[in-house]
Structure formats: structure tokens, C-alpha cells
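Go through the following before class.
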Amino acid sequence: MTAAPVETIRHSAAHVLAAAVLKLFPSTKIDIGPPTESGFYYDFDGEHTFSAEDLPAIEAEMARIIAADLPFHRREVDRAEAENFFRKCGQPYKLERLADIPEEEVLSLYELGDFVDLCRGPHVASSAAIGAFRLLSIAGAYYRGSEANRQMQRIYGTAFASKEELEKHLADVEEAKRRDHRRLGKELQLFLIDNDVGAGLILWLPRGTAMRLELQQFIAKELTRQGYEQVITPHVARLELFRTSGHFPYYRDAQFEPIADRENLNTALAYGELFSELESGTRSGFLVKPMNCPGHIKIFSNTPKSYRDLPCRLAEFGTVYRWEQSGELSGMTRVRGFTQDDAHIFCTEEQLEGEIQGCLSLVRKIFETLAMGDYRVRLSLRDPQSDKYIGDDRAWEKSETALRQAIQTLELPYGEEVGGAAFYGPKIDFIVKDVLGREWQLGTVQVDYNLPTRFNLTYIGPDNRPLVPVMIHRAPFGSLERFCGILIEHFGGDFPLWLAPEQVRILPISDELIPYGRQLREMLIEKGIRVTIDEHSDKLGAKIRRAELFHVPYAVVVGEKERESGSVALRSRIRKEHEGSHSVGTFVELLEADIRSRRLPDQFLSNAR
């Protein structure tokens, strides 16, 4: 017999979870239990506070229900019958969910033994078809996702058709935990999030800063080759600038509150009145920038341009700020302040295809260098039925055509997503799969006919008439914070040598050999190597363990023999073929060749295979 789709198995397992909880804790109120990409959950409310100690008992009751091979029976009911049933059961959340269902929609209940739930399905034929399951964790979740509502208790689990699939998934989960950038970021001292600074605001520690700067230098060299010019724009700008661009109010809910202009400010004005005046535009103010593009537009328009000046390519590692709900924040991958490797190209329509190709080649080079070669492309288009977009149909059609033609030259499979475009233009998104098979949306390229029109941008064409340029927005990394968080997990903290925050650690075996170690350090620093020396007085084994804990690619052991011969004894996490005794000159050559080639760590290649 063919197994049911995994989503159906998981949806059914969620019902079994709710049935088990009600059996063990009869007074519990239940809400919803949908399948997710990796499992399922169910939300509960009751006097009993669930803990990890409750999960084995709940799992045992679920196993009993599954072993009983109870059928999932669907029964269509009218609204009055459904309301009467859940009112009699004392399930208020079900009554509220029932009220959300349109009058014309068919109502159905699913019965599993004594358990009955409001659900449109589908489900497996009987509980035994669930196969294998595991409860994973407990968390708080606000009812309907709003902080204004009561906090529910959410129990997470996962289910598969077979035990083998479940065990593989659980192994992947453990590997993901081992690679978790939040854990590794703390252990490797890469970044810090401090509540005194603010949730979602990253403090880059020295080691993390070294990695970030290396990435910036890498892409900056590529930008120079492609003819970009670097610019810097302020972190705040006048609110009217973002009204013109459309970011205010189009991104209003994702922005920090406007800042009032202090000139002629009546300090007795109530906050609500002040806020209302800023919103309406009757009072001037400022905004911490949510986007870099308005600043780049102003730089472009600073001097008259002719067609001979195009394309104009402006790039910036620009920090922007977005207001994310606290429940959506996650380490470095979902933050409130982040730096984009942002650029904007102003060009003619004739230059558009070539410029898009240049953007795509830059994205591909980054992915290839960092072994992110498994990716797909998504073309995000406007939803013609939505009113959230600016500009006319002709501009959108030209933008979408230009991007579609550019994607087709990549000879890669791609999908189209209607409704995923930015409010000013369609975009190409690169969806990268990491070594654990997880997908991440990273690089993006967008075509924009609208903002140049809103800002009255022009250049003088060959016939001496003013023309409106086309604008390309592109960010290969997207956000440096998010990209680095993904890289930490992608490499599991064992970075390629060129990217490693600390490339070499020198380990003198006694205090008498520290001077020789310092000489080596100074020589390596002169060669541009990121190197430290462990001058602690404890034994060599402890020093080696410390270097291992920090994932240092090369540990250089120096003893009396090495000092006398001018050599080093190498230990390496990333390149076993280099271990052993080498002259200092040979060691430097090995390092420089590894950095120059941006070679991947041996164990990464092994894991990737």
C-alpha cells in the first residue's frame, strides 16, 4: 500500500497528540494543530503547565492510540450542530475558529475514537498509518499570533511514514543543533546580542568582525572589477525622502517610528498628536533608514548625466533598520539592524540586459566560492489584483520581461511566484540549499522603472532629449548578518582558511619558547595572516584543546627542536595533508596558497559528498 503524503501523516499525528492530551488532562482547551514543513504542532490552554517531563507520558498515550488502529471518520455538520457540540464540550477556541469559517463553506468534524475536532482534513484512513512519530519540544505561542492575546502552550512533534525516515530526520535535527549559529557564535566569540543594546541588534565581536570584513573585501574587489563606485549614506534621513520613494507608508509596519524634527517642536504636545502629525505629513521629521536606495538616487541626481555617463553603478555596505516583531527575531538570521551589500545601477533600457547579467554573474561567483552551488531561482512577480504596487502596467511588463529573459540565459530551472515582487518592481531571488538540505533566500536582483519616475530622474540621450533611466537594485549577500549566520551553519564553524577569524594559533610548549613564538607571530602578521599565540603556562594538551574549541584551522606547535631548526610542527583541522614538520618558509607558502585559492576545508568536502 502506498504511504499517505507526509503532510497528511503529520496532520493526523497532530490530532492524535490532541486526543492524547485530552485523555491525560481532560480540562485542557484546544485550539489548532496544523502540519508544518518539518513536523506538526498543537496549541493548548489549561491549568496544567506542560514541561519536558510530560512528553514521555503523552507519547505513550499517542502510541496506544496509533496501535489501536482507530479510523479517522469525517462527518459533515451544519453550523448549529457544530456550535452546540463545542459549546457542550467546553471548547471556546473551537467556537471562535468556527466563527471564522464563511457561511457558504462546508463544515466537517473528524472523529478519532472519543476525540472530535473541527477540521477540513484530509487525514490518513486510520491511526496506524501514521508510522513513526516523536514529540520534540514545548514553547509558548500567542493565540492567533498576537501579543495582545492569551499565551497558549504549543507542543511540537514530527512524524513520518517509516521509522527509518524519522531516525534520519532526528539525526539531521541533531546536526542542525550542532551547527546552530547562535550556539557556535557564542562558543567561537563571533557576535553578541545584549538586551541592554536591544533585541535584534548585533554586536560584532573582534573575531566575527574579521570574518565580516573578509567577506566585504572579497566582494569589494569584484565590484571594482565590474566598475562600481563605493558610496556612504547616513543612517537617518528626512521622512519626506521616504514618502517620495514610497517606503513610507508602503513598509510602514516594518519600520521604526518616525523621529520629530526638534526645530519649533512644542514639547507639551501629546505623543499621540505628535505621532499623528508625523504620519500625516503636517510636521516634518526623520526616519532611520529602512532602505539604502533613496540615498543612492540622490547621489545619482547630484550632477547632470548624459547617456555617455551610463551605466552608473553605486555600491554601499549600508546599514538599515526594520521593525521586526520580537517573536520573529532569530539570532543573526532575523534582526532589526543589518548591513546590506547594496548596489543600485542606473542605466538605459538598451544596457539593462547586460547589467542584469553582470549582477547574476556576481551572485554565482559568491555562491561557487562558498560551495553554495545547490540553488534554485525564483522570479517574484506583481499580483495584478493587489493595490500594494506602484507604477503602470507597461513598466511592470517591461521589468518582468527583462528579468525572465535574464534567468533563461542561466539555463537553470526556475519558478515564478505571483505576489512576491517588491512594491516598486519584480525581482530574482536565489534560494540556496545548504549541506543539511535546508533552503535559504539569499541574493536578489530587482528591476525598477518606478522610483526613477517618482524622483524625476533623467539623463540626456543621444538626441539631446531628457530620458528616464532604469534602476537595478541588487544585493548578492542580502544581509551580512544573515549571510554570516548561514555561513556559520553551512561550514559548522570550520571556515575556509581565507575566511577564518583566526587562521593560525602558535602553541609554545614552554615559557622559554614564547620569544620564538612571538617572532613567528610577527612574521605571519607581516604576511597578512590572522594569528595569535597561546602564552598560558599550562600543558600543551590544554593549549591544543583550546585551539580545537575555537576551530582554529592551524595550530603551530613550537618546541626546542623547532626553534633550533627554524621550523614548525603543524596540526590542522582543515588540511590533514599539511600536518607534520615544515620549515617556516614552506609553512607560509602553504598558508598563502590556501588563502589565495579560497580552498574549502577537507571535512566540508567530505560532508558535502
Notes: Residues 6-179 form a domain with the Threonyl-tRNA Synthetase; Chain A, domain 2 fold (CATH 3.30.980.10). The chain has a mean pLDDT of 91. The first helix runs from residue 6 to 24.
